[in-house]
């Protein structure tokens, strides 16, 4: 499609698809022409989600987007997040202990990776460890509902109002970017957005990383420092991105690469395709753990560029070494793969492995 039909209308989905790197970049950066205000920017995720994203930054254009993101931006910078590193390591170690206590054959995705991202979000929000079940369980088919999450967050906000602590929730509650505090509804929406945008995507990143590193026999080299883990993670993000498309709506008639998209039409910008565009990447179909530079578009671009990208990177760079330090000889328990099916999210639902300790 990238070569033969780079901008096309899909009748079945009622949506335009944009496949080339430069066009995807244009759609994501020109926020005036390509609006986020229509449903969700990560639409495929919210449609079947337990959490409603109607009033969050991901679905807002400026100036509302600036206000909502402005409150929290500084707490998602690498410098601020670094202080959580030891906590993330401890979380990963505890999770690995639990998994290995039951045996050396397990599903990396469901048994090891799945609870970690929601628990990490609990860590940065200041949710006590024994109270994170609700955060982890709010997902399609999960054991907790949006109402339970809302009741829990509302109570937590009240407690932090009375007793601020050194966590992002306390900072957000007391921040007044335009002279007024965030409303309880806005604070709840923000927490729900973090869980929705930050849980599944990062489970998938951890799982895709183990999948790729095992498949390409890289774990020993990563442990020995022969292959740089940070660089290899960027290549996982490029080659197997957790998010395949980002959605927008045309706010005016607009020409993209010679094709006119009418005002009001929906557009899917295929970051997964941009990530393999030979105009941008040499040998794009090859997984190269030493690829550098690697200007992939997995975290989006422009004003909506992923707020949680530094958190997802820190998580992968912290959790995977804990795993590699404890286990050796990782092998796949099956050659069958069961990818998540849908236009937005991509990754494996399960990754059964066996390891030696
Ligand atoms: C936005 C991908 C992890 C929070 C985005 C966007 C993408 C993306 C493509 C842009 C959406 C758009 O332009 O409409 C990913 C991937 C992740 C990841 C691939 C993991 C590998 C996280 C984490 C968090 C998070 C861990 C927070 C805990 C957000 C938020 C936005 C966002 C709040 C909206 C930003 C805005 O509208 O200004 N993400 N994300 N993401 N992401 Fe992530």
In short:
Belongs to the cytochrome P450 family. By secondary structure, the protein is an alpha+beta fold. It has helices at residues 21-29, 43-47, 64-72, 78-81, 85-101, 108-113, 116-125, 133-137, 146-162, 168-174, 184-198, 200-215, 219-223, 229-239, 271-274, 309-326; strands spanning 7-10, 15-18, 34-35, 105-107, 245-250, 254-256, 259-261, 266-270, 328-332, 352-356.
Verbal overview:
This protein is of the alpha+beta class. The protein has one domain (7-356): Cytochrome P450 (Cytochrome p450, Orthogonal Bundle), CATH 1.10.630. It is built from 16 helices and ten strands. The protein has helices at residues 21-29, 43-47, 64-72, 78-81, 85-101, 108-113, 116-125, 133-137, 146-162, 168-174, 184-198, 200-215, 219-223, 229-239, 271-274, 309-326; strands at residues 7-10, 15-18, 34-35, 105-107, 245-250, 254-256, 259-261, 266-270, 328-332, 352-356. The strands form three sheets. It has a five-stranded mixed beta sheet with strand order 1-2-8-5-3. The chain has a three-stranded antiparallel beta sheet with strand order 4-10-9. A two-stranded antiparallel sheet has the order 6-7. The protein starts with 6 loop residues before the first strand and ends with a strand. Residues 40-48 have low confidence and may be disordered. Residues 28, 36, 41-42, 57-58, 69, 121, 193-194, 197-198, 201-202, 205, 241-243, 246, 298-300, 304, 306-308, 311-312 line the site of protoporphyrin IX containing FE (HEM).
